[in-house]
Design goal:
8 helices, about 15% strand
Length: about 270
C-alpha cells in the first residue's frame, strides 16, 4: 500500500510539473499558452493528455505508464521543448534589434518602410534589397545566439543549418550533407547538386540529426511585422514542388515544424 501511495504522489507531481510547463512569458510580458488543440499530433498530444487527466493518461499508455520514469520523461520532453523555444524567441528578438541598430540613419524611421525594404544596397560584393540584407544579417546574429543558448539548455541535442539530402522522396530516406561538402560544391560551381536538399535553421534531437524531434526556421520580416512571413513554396520544376517549406520539413525532417518570428514568438 505504501509503495502504491508513493507512486501516486510522484504521478501527481509529474502532472503538476507538466501543467506548469504550459505557459511562457513573451518579450512584451504577455503570457503565451501552449494548448492541446494546437499541438501537433505525436509531439504534445500525449503530454497534454497526461496534464488534463491522469486516468486518461494511464488508459493511453497502459502498463508502460506504471513506470514513473515514463511519466517524468513526458514532462521532461515538454519542459525541454519549452526551454528551447524560449531561447530561440530571445535570439530572434535580439537579432532584429541588434541589426536595426546598426543603421540608425539609413531609414526614415527606426525600421524601414515597405518602399525602403525594396531598395537596393550592396552587401558582400553584390546588389541585394534591404529586405534581403537585413534578413541575412539577422540570421547570422540569431545563429550565434542559438548556438550559445541551446548549448546551455539542450547540449548535444541540436544542429544549426544542417543540410539534408533526400535520397528517396517516397520512403523519406535521407542523409546528411556536411558543411565541407556543401562549401566545396558551391565553390566549384556545382551548387546545383544541392537542389532538392533541405536546410532548416535549427533542428533538435537526442544526438542524431537524422532522427530529429523538431525543425525551426527564423523568419525576419522587413518593416512592420503585423503579418508574419509565411512558409515559402518551391517553384515549378523543383523536386519538392508539391510541398511548401513547412510540409517538406514535416515530411522529411521532423514531426514538429515551426517559425520563430521576432516579438511574435513560435508560430506553426
Amino acid at each position: 500500500m505504501f509503495t502504491r501511495l508513493v507512486g501516486l504522489n510522484v504521478w501527481a507531481l509529474a502532472v503538476l510539473l507538466a501543467q506548469s510547463a504550459c505557459v511562457t512569458i513573451g518579450p512584451s510580458g504577455t503570457q503565451r499558452h501552449y494548448g492541446y488543440s494546437n499541438a501537433p499530433v505525436g509531439i504534445d498530444s500525449p503530454s497534454a493528455t497526461c496534464r488534463n487527466s491522469l486516468s486518461a493518461c494511464v488508459a493511453l499508455y497502459g502498463k508502460e505508464m506504471a513506470s514513473t520514469t515514463a511519466v517524468l520523461n513526458v514532462v521532461f520532453n515538454e519542459t525541454t521543448k519549452k526551454s528551447i523555444e524560449e531561447e530561440l524567441e530571445k535570439c530572434a528578438d535580439l537579432a532584429r534589434t541588434e541589426v536595426l541598430l546598426r543603421y540608425p540613419k539609413q531609414f526614415k524611421g527606426p525600421i524601414p518602410d515597405a518602399e525602403e525594404c525594396k531598395q537596393e544596397t550592396k552587401s558582400q560584393g553584390r546588389r541585394v534589397t534591404w529586405a534581403m540584407r537585413l534578413g541575412i544579417e539577422m540570421h547570422e546574429v540569431a545563429r550565434k545566439c542559438a548556438e550559445e543558448g541551446l548549448g546551455k539548455v539542450h547540449p548535444g541535442g541540436f544542429s544549426l543549418e544542417q543540410r539534408y539530402r533526400i535520397i528517396d522522396l517516397e520512403t523519406g530516406e535521407k542523409e546528411l550533407v556536411n558543411a565541407e561538402e556543401e562549401r566545396a560544391l558551391e565553390e566549384s560551381g556545382n551548387g546545383g547538386e544541392l537542389k532538392g536538399t533541405l536546410k532548416p535553421d535549427v533542428v533538435t534531437h537526442e544526438g542524431d540529426p537524422l532522427d530529429s524531434r523538431a525543425a525551426y526556421d527564423f523568419k525576419f520580416p522587413c518593416g512592420e511585422n503585423g503579418n508574419p512571413p509565411d512558409w515559402g513554396r518551391y517553384p515549378k520544376g523543383h523536386p519538392l514542388a508539391k510541398y511548401t517549406q513547412k510540409t517538406a520539413y514535416e515530411r522529411y525532417i521532423a514531426p514538429l515544424v515551426a517559425r520563430i518570428i521576432p516579438w511574435l514568438g513560435v508560430l506553426e
